[in-house]
Specification:
The protein has about 425 residues and is mainly β. The chain contains two helices and 29 strands.
Length: about 425
């Protein structure tokens, strides 16, 4: 039986990995589009695409840029995987190149029936306006060619209440209005559990209330209603994801067939904004024997669908009593571009294998010199069954073969051996 201890160098390197992060949001982030080089969803499987009416469009400076002169305008169509179309939140960061009259920001319906209604969120002569069947809810003013953060929530309260929060220019998200929009704020069902939203284009093709040019930095969707505090947190997140290792740092007695997990308190991605997947996540992980300088341990890693849990499966059983070092570099970030700091943990595998014993002379040996020493060598360090250490004083109490009287043995300071110093033994 071996004593499971971490090497001193590992103990000295153990650091507290606890970090303070904002409380989890009451609504779940289900889609995140960062627009750095395409319309990929960093969290879920939302489908975002252009509506095909752009005179020009491109990705540059971390944004999707467009111009248009078509009747319905250029814009984006999002099919979101909402569990409940009556309760959702949408956050987006945009800037418009020009304004004048009504200019559509967000459409909720009538993609299949253009001309039926103009309901939606607009700029109206540089102010915000939620237009519902001829009713208006005027908001605050907005300046062109300036990025602005918006969070719109829709709850089932009172038959459909829309709340719009807008950046006041000083980094504060303020409530612009709280309005009962009813069914006009429900996105269009398009099948397969998807619901459609339109951005920046006019869903009534006979009109001209589209936006002529602008930039989109990000679009995010939550499957639930954010509070005002959560809306502020959603657009002002400056806290890196908190990391949890399992097994935890310093833990002993871990099963040899254990999997290792690295969990984050929010969705993460690569620092180049590309999505993590089961193919690229392996390169982010180090799994080694003993410490950062130890021999690599082969493994396979996967990331869960929510991009919050990396599961590491060693290629074989871990060794009994082995110290295992696992680490991740500063290679992932949250969806607000907050990168983690490099982090690591080490744990010790349970030792359930008894020490092997070697006798010298070997069992059955003949022609042994009469003055030879007898040694008992173990494959690893040993102790008494009561966990007390062996010593030159205590070792002579160990049971010797029946009928043989030997002088006091000594405990070797070398290769895990007990040496019996023999008297002159008689021939045969």
């Amino acid at each position: 039986m071996a004593i499971s201890r971490l090497p001193a160098v590992i103990l000295a390197a153990f650091l507290g990995l606890v970090s303070v992060s904002p409380a989890a949001l009451s609504a779940t982030l289900i889609h995140s589009f960062q627009m750095d080089a395409g319309f990929s969803d960093g969290v879920g499987s939302g489908a975002l695409s252009e509506n095909g009416n752009a005179a020009s469009s491109s990705f540059s400076a971390g944004a999707w840029n467009w111009t248009s002169s078509a009747a319905s305008g250029a814009g984006l169509i999002l099919d979101a995987s909402l569990a409940d179309q009556t309760n959702y939140s949408i956050g987006f960061r945009i800037q418009y190149g020009s304004l004048g009259g009504y200019r559509k920001i967000l459409s909720f319906e009538n993609f299949a029936n253009p001309g039926a209604s103009d309901s939606g969120l607009y700029f109206n002569n540089n102010s915000f306006d939620f237009y519902v069947n001829g009713s208006h809810a005027a908001g605050t003013s907005y300046s062109t060619n300036t990025y602005c953060d918006f969070v719109l929530t829709r709850s089932s309260a009172n038959g459909g209440t829309v709340v719009l929060y807008v950046d006041d220019g000083a980094g504060n998200l303020v409530e612009v209005y709280n309005y009962v929009a009813g069914p006009a704020s429900l996105p269009q069902a398009v099948g397969g559990g998807k619901y459609r939203f339109g951005f920046f284009m006019d869903d009534q093709a006979t009109s001209s209330e589209f936006t002529m040019s602008g930039k989109v930095d990000s679009i995010r969707v939550w499957d639930g209603v954010l509070t005002s505090t959560e809306a502020q947190q959603a657009v002002s997140d400056t806290t890196p994801p908190a990391i949890t290792f399992s097994p935890v740092n310093g833990q002993a007695g871990i099963a040899a067939n254990s999997r290792i997990t690295i969990s984050f308190d929010e969705a993460v991605r690569n620092i180049d904004d590309s999505a993590l997947n089961d193919t690229n996540v392996d390169a982010l992980i180090a799994l080694r024997d003993t410490d950062a300088s130890g021999s690599p341990i082969p493994f396979d890693a996967v990331i869960d669908a929510g991009h919050q849990i990396i599961t590491i499966t060693p290629a074989g059983l871990l060794g009994p009593g082995q110290t295992v070092y696992v680490a991740i570099g500063a290679t992932v970030e949250d969806l607000a571009n907050n990168a983690i700091a490099a982090a690591s943990a080490a744990f010790v595998v349970v030792d359930s294998v008894s020490p092997s014993v070697t006798f010298a002379p070997a069992n059955g040996a003949t022609s042994v010199a009469a003055n030879d020493n007898i040694t008992i060598t173990f494959s690893e360090a040993v102790r008494h069954l009561d966990d007390s250490p062996l010593s030159d004083t205590s070792v002579d109490s160990l049971k010797m073969p029946s009928g043989i009287s030997m002088p006091q043995p000594s405990r070797s300071t070398g290769p895990l051996a007990l040496t019996q110093h023999a008297r002159q033994m008689w021939p045969g």
